[in-house]
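Working notes for the structural subgroup meeting. M.R. asked for a predicted model of this chain before we commit to crystallization trials. I am recording the input and output together here so anyone reviewing the notebook later can reproduce the run.

Input as submitted:
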Amino acid sequence: MSHHIVEVQDLHYTYPGETVALQGVSFRIEHGEAVGIVGANGAGKSTLLQHLNGYLVPIRGTVRIGDYPLTKETVRQVRRTVGMVFQDPDDQLFMPTVYEDVAFGPLNLGLPPADIELRVAQALETVGAWHLRDRPPYRLSGGEKRAVAIASVLSMSPDILVLDEPTSNLDPRARRHLIALLKSFHHTKIIATHDLDLVLDLCSRVIVIHEGRVRADGTVQAIFEDEALLEDSHLEKPLRMQACPVCG
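Returned structure, recorded in token form:
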């Protein structure tokens, strides 16, 4: 299943004004892996994710999604394979109703109306949001917006799901629901987050980004038990791995 593979080689990116975001990032993610991308603010996580779905195109280095090297000419094919959920759902929801937002992607694929209706219904049912289909997105709660944003990606039937800070601004109940939902997605998942307990719940592998470089790449257990690495990368252990401050 080569179409599920994500391969990044020597990726560099500098924003206008000479702000360096990525400095030679390389890794390969195989089909079905669940990978957490972690790092401090400004480490380059979001910039990296935006390359995986073609919102940014490599200036130096390469990004390959399955059989396609990411270029301006292949962006359309790449976006059919990679579904990206942005950190802020308001960046993703722009249609008058939830139904129209979730239908937008399939509609632009040129699918028949019956297929679009089926995809929208399945995606909204999957995230538990079918009852919201006629609501305007601006009238949704934060958790509801997140669910609908994920549904708008699932309706495209992606092989690879990329999420940027998916638990930000979620209450505990919405966070638990999101974790259960993401566990049900059995293709490749790439999750950039500060929520290291989420990584423990969903991922088997962690890539640590620090100052635009891959600082470490390994299993969840090995990375999160390396206190020197976490300290150098301005990270802390997941709460579940920290000693209780009361009982030690």
